[in-house]
């Protein structure tokens, strides 16, 4: 038997106090469910970032990306793309008929989008761990990355 609450469970403040109920429940926000926030849960997946190519754009090593395949990629969107055998996170640049994937780091040149490049989805949220233990939890929970010659994701 698990001690975890089911996703639909809701804690009711004040129900188990031995004194008077906390007045904080009067200002309580509604319960947040990721399914309510995501545009299309069936087309959404999570990706852990490995590398520093997008750090100057606010996407850091070990951040967790929420990626939605149902969202159309537009100019300026952050996208997850497959370039040959490597997955990368980049900003999509559309200039006329020219499509490029741009890094936020000067060491990484732009990638011309050709038929061999596949856009796997648009980044709709970036979750950034703020404590050492939450970063460690992500490292322990997510599978280890496969070796790559260009660790950008």
From TrEMBL:
A Pfam family hit: Peptidase_S24
Domain Peptidase S24/S26A/S26B/S26C: from-to ranges: 18-124
Transmembrane segments: none
InterPro entries listed in its UniProt record: LexA-like (IPR039418), LexA/Signal_pep-like_sf (IPR036286), LexA_repressor (IPR050077), Peptidase_S24_S26A/B/C (IPR015927)
Entries under SUPFAM superfamilies matching the protein: LexA/Signal peptidase
Superkingdom classification of source: Bacteria
UniProt-recorded name of the protein: Peptidase S24/S26A/S26B/S26C domain-containing protein
């Amino acid at each position: 038997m698990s001690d975890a609450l089911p996703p639909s469970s809701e804690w009711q403040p004040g129900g188990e106090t031995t004194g008077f109920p906390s007045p904080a429940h009067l200002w309580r926000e509604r319960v947040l469910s990721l399914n309510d926030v995501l545009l299309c849960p069936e087309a959404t997946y999570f990706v852990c970032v490995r590398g520093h190519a997008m750090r100057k754009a606010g996407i850091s090593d070990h951040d967790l990306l929420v990626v939605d395949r149902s969202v159309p990629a537009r100019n300026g969107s952050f996208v997850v793309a497959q370039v040959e055998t490597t997955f990368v996170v980049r900003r999509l640049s559309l200039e006329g008929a020219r499509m490029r994937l741009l890094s936020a780091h000067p060491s990484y040149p732009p990638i011309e989008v050709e038929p061999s490049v596949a856009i796997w989805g648009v980044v709709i949220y970036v979750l950034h761990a703020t404590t050492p233990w939450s970063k460690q939890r992500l490292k322990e929970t997510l599978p280890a990355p496969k070796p790559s010659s260009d660790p950008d994701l």
